[in-house]
Specification:
The chain is an alpha/beta fold. 29% of the residues lie in helices and 22% in strands. A hairpin with a 4-residue loop joins strand 11 and strand 12. Helix 2 packs parallel to helix 3 (64-72). The protein starts with a helix and ends in a 6-residue tail after the last strand. 37% of the residues are buried.
Length: 198
């Protein structure tokens, strides 16, 4: 039986994926610099000593300049490792560590696995998204890893999704298991959307 919410999510993800593929290398480079500056300012604003982030794919807003700068500043950065059971494991970011292809075919670091609950100790979560709406509802890429993680953390820290400017929408389709985010980080701004939603 067709699910209208799933169908709407699939259609929107396809449109967003296509838009991202059309970005020029120059636009991606500019976006990477903006994302790094916005994330560094957010870390300072939150006063975070430990954060979770992720290794971006080529289609995503670039996170590596921020990751390298954060580690150089002495901030503990945890990076996710996908598991076959649908949970995320975590490793400490090391700019010199090898990168391999994870369960979903996305880049993941090689390192000592800390276990799914390691993320409970971060002061700020930085996560990927396809889009976010103005109420803070996030549209992910359909696997549910981050929704499960966010939903399982007691006293969850602020959660910010990294997106391109055009991906902050008026509304995204959502289901009961979808988790809102505190705000978004784009190449040009950081916006708090749902401070009470976390």
């Amino acid at each position: 039986m067709p699910d209208p919410i799933d169908d709407a999510k699939r259609a929107l993800r396809a449109e967003l994926r296509e838009r991202r593929q059309l970005l020029t290398d120059a636009a991606r480079k500019d976006a990477a610099a903006g994302i790094a500056a916005q994330l560094e300012a957010l870390v300072d604003q939150v006063g975070a000593h430990a954060v979770s982030c992720y290794l971006s794919t080529r289609a995503e807003p670039e996170t590596r300049p921020f990751l390298n700068a954060a580690v150089a500043r002495g901030i503990r950065v945890l990076l996710p490792i996908t598991r076959v059971d649908g949970l995320l494991d975590w490793v400490v970011a090391d700019p010199d560590a090898d990168v391999t292809e994870g369960v979903l075919g996305i880049p993941e670091p090689v390192g000592e696995l800390l276990g799914p609950i390691a993320v409970n100790d971060v002061d700020l979560m930085i996560i990927p998204a396809a889009a976010v709406d103005r109420s803070g509802m996030r549209l992910g890429w359909g696997r549910g890893y981050f929704d499960k993680t966010i939903g399982s953390i007691q006293g969850c820290p602020p959660v910010y999704a990294v997106i391109f400017d055009s991906e902050l929408l008026d509304e995204v389709p959502s289901d009961v298991h979808d988790q809102p985010v505190t705000g978004v980080v784009t190449p040009t701004r950081t916006i708090t959307l749902a401070p009470e939603g976390r």
